[in-house]
Design goal:
The protein has helices at residues 12-35, 47-72, 84-112, 135-170, 174-178, and strands spanning 119-121, 125-127. The chain has 191 residues and is mainly α.
Length: 191
Amino acid sequence: MRWKNSGEEYGHFSLLLHWLVALVLYGMFALGLWMVSLGYYDTWYHKAPELHKSVGMVLFAVMILRVIWRFISPPPAPLASYTPLVRYSAVAVHLLLYLLLFAIFISGYLISTAEGKPIDLFGVLPIPALLSADATQTDLAGDIHLWLAWTVVILSLLHGLAALKHHFIDRDITLRRMLGYRITSSIKTEK
């Protein structure tokens, strides 16, 4: 089992982080949309936001780990068949997704701590409120959080469609690499 990335393939740890973040992100998006529709007397009215906050903080930590891991184990080189536009677009989209995700975490933190109360991480660990203002902080951060979440979901769907395009139209190994298939060393990558 290969945990680190090679020049041609993603390691298992990178694949695990990628797919874990993707699954949790979509789950958090669905949970967020569902929880804002709950009425005060619904059983999950208080539980869902607490779960959303806790999972969000854990996902924030996982994303920090993911960034650190990219420096420890850089991703494989782009395929030689990629055009310069594809190479630059891929870098730009990945960077944008990372920046948007961190902006979502920050806006979620600002929503949750606007009243000066800590975030109670699964009822075990309080995450202190470092920045708190007034009700306008909650409203503004809430609007930003929602729009950023929609943006990340749409951008990630386009990212997925691009991977499918690589697989079915370009017939290259882009998607296979992200699914963890072993790649033969005869595949040319950009050095």
